[in-house]
Design a protein that fits this description.
Elements lengths: L5 E9 L4 E7 L4 E3 L2 E3 L6 H13 L3 E13 L5 E11 L16 E6 H7 L3 H10 L7 E7 L20 H16 L2 E7 L2 H14 L3 E4 L9 H13 L3 E6 L4 H7 L12 E7 L2 E8 L2
Parallel strand pairs: 1-6, 8-11, 9-10, 9-11
Antiparallel strand pairs: 1-4, 2-3, 2-7, 5-6, 8-12, 12-13
Family: Belongs to the Nudix hydrolase family.
Keywords: Hydrolase
InterPro entries: His_Pase_superF_clade-1 (IPR013078), His_PPase_superfam (IPR029033), Nudix_hydrolase (IPR020476), NUDIX_hydrolase-like_dom_sf (IPR015797), NUDIX_hydrolase_CS (IPR020084), NUDIX_hydrolase_dom (IPR000086), Nudix_hydrolase_domain (IPR051325)
């Protein structure tokens, strides 16, 4: 039986002025992007943020995803590395990073020089792919609520229909993913199953929760939805909007996007800049 693939995640971290963050690994004597293997059960998005922090000392906010790298390792196993463009949260000074056996160099390198500094062709390809997406953008996350009790099994007001235990666990798993995209505005349908899907994130981060009857199935109101989303596209902060499957077509139409049939607890991460959509990533738990 062939050995399972190695899964890893990393980021092309950029900053204003066009610099890109590279790391040097003494074991391989190479220059590359900060990256590392996923821990057991870890989501690639969470791993990406963790690995960048471990290898550079910087906390980052993820932007658009990039094509994954896939290549053979020296041990005969296939390795898949998922990549994102990223921006630093706070101070981007790396001079205080404590070098170690894994990383003995962390440098901001001008984009024009990074091509020659990188050791591998596949990293040069990733750098080129990141070029059109390197400008600072923000994320608007459209989230379908987690798995809830079925309508047939629920005899009360449908607005109060709760999440299943599996849905509650999904809500917990969403916390680091929303944080990775720099979400600081939380908007939700007033229905219990939507509010419960973002409550763990709100409790963990302290960000306020804004609820709307107009985002619920019973109180849906297109002008309110259109105005909310138009405002979020112009905002300089990350946001999440949690709603229901029947309302998703209206949400995507308001954003000028094709309809996406999201599964429970699945999200579409819409990266935007100055009111315009740059790219969109579909993210499942």
């Amino acid at each position: 039986m062939p050995a399972p693939d190695v899964r890893a995640a990393g980021a092309v971290v950029t900053r204003k002025g066009g610099d890109v963050l590279l790391v040097h690994r003494p074991r391989y004597d190479d220059w590359s992007f900060p990256k590392g293997k996923l821990d057991a059960g870890e989501h690639a998005i969470t791993a990406c943020v963790r690995e960048v922090a471990e290898e550079t000392g910087l906390d980052v906010r993820l932007g658009p995803s990039l094509p994954s790298q896939r290549y053979d390792t020296d041990r005969g196993r296939m390795k898949t590395v998922d990549y994102w463009v990223a921006r630093v949260l706070g101070n981007d000074d790396v001079s205080g990073y404590a070098f170690n056996d894994e990383i003995d160099g962390v440098e901001w390198v001008p984009w024009s020089r990074a091509v020659d500094r990188l050791t591998y062709d596949y990293d040069r390809d990733t750098l080129q792919q990141a070029k059109r997406l390197r400008r600072n953008s923000r994320a608007l996350v459209v989230l379908r609520h987690g798995h809830a009790r079925s309508r047939r099994a629920w005899r009360g007001d449908d607005r109060r229909r709760p999440l299943l235990l599996s849905g509650e666990l999904e809500a917990q798993r969403l916390v680091p993913l929303l944080a990775a995209y720099g979400v600081s505005e939380v908007h939700s349908s007033s229905s219990v199953r939507c509010v419960a899907s973002v409550t763990p994130f709100v409790h963990t981060t302290g960000w306020p929760l804004h609820t709307y009857d107009e985002l619920s199935e019973e109180g849906v109101d297109r002008p309110t939805i259109d105005a909310l989303l138009a405002g979020l596209l112009m905002a300089g902060s990350g946001s999440v909007v949690c709603t229901h499957r029947p309302l998703l077509p209206a949400v995507f139409e308001a954003l000028g996007l094709e309809k996406v049939a999201l599964e429970p607890a699945e999200m579409l991460v819409i990266h935007h800049r100055k009111g315009k959509v740059v790219s969109a990533d579909r993210v499942a738990l």
